[in-house]
Amino acid sequence: MLPYQSLTEPFEADAYLKRWLELERKVSAKGFTWATLYENYEDNQYMSDSLLVVPSSLVREVENASRAVNDIFAKTYEQILKDRSVIHKTGISVFLWDLLLTEGKTAFSYFVRYDFIASAKGLKVIEGNTDTPVGLVEAAIAQDVLCQEYGSPNPNAHISANIKSAWNQIIKDYRIGSTDTLYFTCADWHNEDKQTVQFLMSLYPQQAKYIPLEDIVVGEDDVQTPEGERIDFLYRLYPLEYFLEEKSGTGELIGERFIVHMMNDKVKVINPPSALLMQSKAILSLITEKKEEWYTRSEQAVIDQYFIPTYDTAISLESYVKKPVLGREGGGIQIVSGGSVLEEDVDYYQEQAVVFQEYFPMPDQTIDTWDGPYTGKLLIGSHVINGQPSGLFFRVGGMITGNLSMFVAYTTG
């Protein structure tokens, strides 16, 4: 368990809540507006005011692991382009295959978050969030406010600079001219996504406009704003596979038309389509299956060190985590150990193909909450922006890390 600092010791509920609400006001003023989440008909605390004290050696180890894991993902994408028959394992709609396998001159993804467990056998990556990763506002803004509250150094201080560098690379790779506009979109009702988009847009160095996803006009020939301005470049914090379900007011599947416009290069999106391909958890089972065929000996050593054995079936595993290949926020996950179900979510993604990942328990971590000290399971998110490790994102929650697992800031010591 990592040590943590508390501003309210011993715990007194009224004093704690008063101080926490003041802290919520401070982070909200900077753009982090979901320190409280309303779910299950009640307010839930999402931001802890604790500060984890993380050894500098662990931070460096996560950064090194993130580089190595990102290199394996990039190599895996290259191999899939050479052996396209494996794409059927990803669980992604056949309608998208040609789009996902289009070779371009971009990175497979510019904004990624890898989730790690600090297990008894070392750091283990459990998945890559390569398509629409969030947690950037927590890691950049809330993290900074909390470190200031404690008078502690902020190890994530370089996130904004790395994002700016990524935008410059994207401008070059996508050939976005100085007079071109990059539109930023997400579902307008989703506060977390909208604030994340606003944060990313604030760091973009050229012309940019926000357009709610609901306002995008998918025409016969191109994609436009309601005012008739053509959208040539689009950053979307919206899962690419969700576009297939988007309908017009008359029930027409305009999402399919949008995908066709992407295929015909009428609109260029960021993250690129390859990011969805690499988001599938079937990528992890492919890495296990193809370890000796696709990778060099040094790459195989990285896989042995950081990747968890993952399979299409659970035949060889006594304890495993069953995961839908395109699940998000912990939905549809089942944890089984010794024949007993330890935890499961049956509300989402039950219709998807699944993979089975060897079970590595997450370590316990205690943090401060409205209800006093809480001990949950610690997950380490590592942002990789334009291929560079760019700050950590810690969450503490249940055995399945879901939407309500709490964000907690960190410093080094």
UniProtKB/TrEMBL annotation:
The UniProt record lists the Glutathionylspermidine synthase pre-ATP-grasp-like domain at: 24-409
| Matches recorded under Pfam families | GSP_synth
| Alphabetical keyword list | ATP-binding, Ligase, Magnesium, Metal-binding, Nucleotide-binding
Family matches, as InterPro entries = GSPS_pre-ATP-grasp-like_dom, PreATP-grasp_dom_sf
Protein name (Swiss-Prot/TrEMBL): Glutathionylspermidine synthase family protein
Say which species the protein is native to: Halalkalibacter alkalisediminis
